[in-house]
């Protein structure tokens, strides 16, 4: 029987950020189809902490030694879908494919944008890219946005690729809070720009009630951020939302701030829109940039601290009528995005079905 194997982090893992949500969405899509599939997930977080409470799903396997599993079981699968580019398992799968033919899909998950490459270990990443150049014809690249497709094609020309947007399974919840409270919700990593936000708050001595949620992926970077937080009485780190349930934050915040360098999709954007938060986001950093700019007009250039300061002050100084007007735009925009989900799900099923024939 034709069989698909999806490789990547699966809930309740939360430290991997967006990819975990993307893989859970793929799981939901293929569960509702006739496609025979399994998921191979790590059994620990990015910091090495082992996952003790796992989903008891028959077709989800949490393995410490994923490479060993692939070496011993690869022949069972007609298609293997790896949800990371900078991963040693990609080298392993390419090597296996030289001797045993199967479809190899690789979702780059935003890792090949110039911003993502530059934020950590750029030299090692460029070496890895150069190695993969020799084997690119053995890969089907999966991208989720025009910008991501352009990034991949810039590095690998004449490739096989499929662009299908990510999907989400969320319902809109109206936001009734009237206080000007702000939230940052993302992984604590240089790519997400938390330090830029904190520097701006301190530099201009901004009056802002800000709560920060996110897994600390980079300890050295976190120490830099923490020094800024310690200087502010109304800026607090709240830890992680371990089960990833964004509804835990409903009616707590009016705005969310994301000074990110790049989001190939931006699950966090969709999640915070789903609980009625107004977006303040860096320009040209995500697939929703044009809509967010025209609807909310609170975005800013990542390199312009003064503009970020202006956006925060604008948000803080909105009167109740102006705040309510902006909030009233969140729900319709979320529903506009939500209407596209069924067609995108059908695209995924069609894509995989064509490979398994």
Features:
357 residues, alpha/beta, Rossmann fold, five-stranded parallel sheet, 13 helices, 12 strands
Radius of gyration: 21 Å
What is the element string, with H for helices and E for strands?
EHEEHEHEHHEHEEHEHEEHEHHHH
Just give the CATH class of the largest domain.
Answer: Alpha Beta
Could you describe the largest sheet, including whether it forms a barrel? 7 strands, parallel
Named CATH topology of the largest domain: Rossmann fold
> Helicity range of the residues?
40-55%
Strand percentage lies at: 15-25%
Biggest sheet strand order reads: 3-2-1-4-5-6-7
**Overall average residue pLDDT:** 94
Strands, total number: 12
Q: Report the principal-axis shape.
A: globular
Number of domains: 2
CATH homologous superfamily assignment of the largest domain: Glycogen Phosphorylase B
CATH-scheme architecture of the largest domain: 3-Layer(aba) Sandwich
Helix tally equals: 13
Structural class: alpha/beta
């Amino acid at each position: 029987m034709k069989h698909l194997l999806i490789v990547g982090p699966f809930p309740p893992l939360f430290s991997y950020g967006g990819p975990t949500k993307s893989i859970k969405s793929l799981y939901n899509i293929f569960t509702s189809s006739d496609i025979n599939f399994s998921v191979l997930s790590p059994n620990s977080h990015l910091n090495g902490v082992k996952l003790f409470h796992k989903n008891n799903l028959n077709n989800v396997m949490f393995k410490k030694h994923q490479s060993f599993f692939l070496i011993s079981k690869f022949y069972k699968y007609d298609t293997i879908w790896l949800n990371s580019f900078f991963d040693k398992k990609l080298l392993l799968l390419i090597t296996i494919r030289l001797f045993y033919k199967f479809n190899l899909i690789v979702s780059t998950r935003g890792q090949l944008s110039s911003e993502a490459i530059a934020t950590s270990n750029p030299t090692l990443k460029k070496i890895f890219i150069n190695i993969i150049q020799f084997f690119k014809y053995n890969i089907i690249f999966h991208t989720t946005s025009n910008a991501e497709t352009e990034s991949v094609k810039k590095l690998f020309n004449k490739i096989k690729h499929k662009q299908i947007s990510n999907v989400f399974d969320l319902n809109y919840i109206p936001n009734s809070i009237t206080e000007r409270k702000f939230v940052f919700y993302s992984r604590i990593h240089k790519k997400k720009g938390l330090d830029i936000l904190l520097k701006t708050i301190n530099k201009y001595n901004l009056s802002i009630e800000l709560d920060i949620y996110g897994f600390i992926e980079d300890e050295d970077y976190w120490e830099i951020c923490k020094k800024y937080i310690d200087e502010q009485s109304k800026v607090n780190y709240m830890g992680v939302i371990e089960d990833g349930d964004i509804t835990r934050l409903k009616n707590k915040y009016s705005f969310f701030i994301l000074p990110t360098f790049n989001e190939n999709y931006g699950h966090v954007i969709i999640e915070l829109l789903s609980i009625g938060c107004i977006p303040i986001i860096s320009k040209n950093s995500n697939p929703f940039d044009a809509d967010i700019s025209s609807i909310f007009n609170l975005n800013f250039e990542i390199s312009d601290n003064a503009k970020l300061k202006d956006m925060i002050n604008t948000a803080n100084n909105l009167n109740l009528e102006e705040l309510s007007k902006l909030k009233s735009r969140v729900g319709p925009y979320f529903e506009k995005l939500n209407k596209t989900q069924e067609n995108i799900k059908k695209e995924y099923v069609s894509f995989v079905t064509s490979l398994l024939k």
